[in-house]
Design goal:
The protein has helices spanning 13-25, 56-65, 80-93, 119-125, 181-190, 208-216, 237-247, 251-254; strands at residues 5-9, 29-34, 48-50, 70-73, 96-100, 113-116, 132-135, 152-157, 170-174, 195-199, 219-223, 232-234. The protein is α/β, with parallel strands linked by helices. A six-stranded parallel β-sheet has the order 3-2-1-4-5-12, with helices on both faces. 35% of the residues are buried.
Amino acid sequence: MGRPRILILGGTGEARLLAEALAARDDRDILLSLAGRTEKPAAQPVPVRIGGFGGAAALADFLKAGEYDLLIDATHPFAERISANVAFAAETTGIAAIALRRSEWRRQLGDRWQEVWGIPAAIEALGRSPRRVFLATGRQGAHHAEAAPQHFYLIRSVDRVEPPLALAKVEYILDRGPFTLEDECALLRKHGIDVIIAKNSGGGATYAKIEAARLLGIKVMMVVRETGPEVAVVETVEAALAAIDHLFPPAMKRGV
């Protein structure tokens, strides 16, 4: 067979690292697809397309038209709709699919976690008494805070929350990880935060806020992940590369 064609659905650091590793080998044709939700995405080492596909059937059509051999879902662990589309497209087309999902954070000694199913549930669990909340879930879903305007919200995201929330007590921070433990502790102290709402995204880039909460005795409303679709899952870039090599052995191993 010719050079395998691989479509990576990205937007995460792992997607960029995987694309970088595959580009260095230069024995596969790679296209990285980004949803376009971030205004200034990081530079990528392979050709990139921006924008959605228009649903699961459209993704399947794109794979067939481009004669792709492998689909890799390296989107955010909470991008449930995209992941469902990947499972549908893979089954419809018969194309191999892999999901690259970093492992979840695990509760450590000293963590004060309350696991919740979704941001609305986390907002409701704050209670009626005013709290000082670090809403660290990005701009997606930040509007749910409007259901409980009695709290103060510190909201951090890569891009601006648009439109601004209809809240009297809110402050916005535009920043992109990784974040340090020292900086996260300083941030929480500065704003008098007594509860954090976070998604269990896993990985190291944003884990410092969880460490800081443990150190400072701050409660965390931890949004748990939904059960993923039925595709093969790997947790690291190295495991993804091994899976790709198993499906499409490098030219040297094929004796070419």
